[in-house]
Please model this.
Amino acid sequence: MKSFKESNLLIISDRYPHEMDAMSLSFVKNQVDCIKGYFKAIYVISLTPYVPKFMLSCSFMNPRWKRDAFAQDYRYDNVEVYFTKYFSTPFKFLRNMKGLAALKIVNEIITNNNIKFDIIHAHFTYPSGYIGAKLREIYKKPIILTVHENRDWFLKEIHSNDKNLIYTWANADKIIRVNKRDLGEFDRYGFDKSKLSCIPNGYPSEIFKPIDQAGARKKLGLPDDKIILVNIANLEEYKGQKYLIYAIKNIVLECCCRVPDARRGHWARSLRNWSWQLLQLFCTASTAALMAGRSALPETSTSLSTVLR
Model:
């Protein structure tokens, strides 16, 4: 097997940051930026659907699709990024067709740009993982699949018996899940346990640096003599913030809830009467006596190299 430095990595992702949307699945780019030094070249193919310009003003269009309509191929360092612009529709009953439609364009990008790769890494099961599994068959290259789906989405996929999803999982050489709890869900399909790995989500520690607690509280105007609990998560019911709230109500006489960024998540709608205050994420975390979150493991952006070793 080639060393990393002699190998090229092909990444298939549902979306990827571009000039018009710098936050589009930015965690994928964060990982790419961490591991690019380990490879000779990295090729990223983003499964961006084609959106005719005349449809951009339509109210039913997903805002992300509107921004992605302007995405252009680009390169930096040893990374080349391509956007498929494959034909897709917002109708769920045509969902099974989008995998094959995107696969055709991905193959054209690989051929037209003479892309040579040794390893495939796909983010999310469908359509990226499905396309990666098909490329594995065509090019005889190993594929690593990271299943980023949130738990509700993931369980829905597991219980769907969808042939495309099962095909994808069965043909992946390695499957990465962000928590151990979900690995057992694959048992129903009889997959080899040795190909299942758990690597929790992380954060770039060079960006999010804990600072002195007293200084952080002073900067944010928070009291020095109070116990502060910070929860970092989207406001979705399955994240369990309501249990924290119920517990706090039972153990303290006074409780003040502040929501640093309640814009993301369906449960945010039920919290509109809360006191909202936009706080800097890790400056807020530094003020806390206790921090509750789904993961707090730094430097896991290098997880791909860990799995490959």
In short: Confidence is low (pLDDT under 50) at residues 272-283, 294-309. DSSP finds ten helices and 14 strands in the chain.
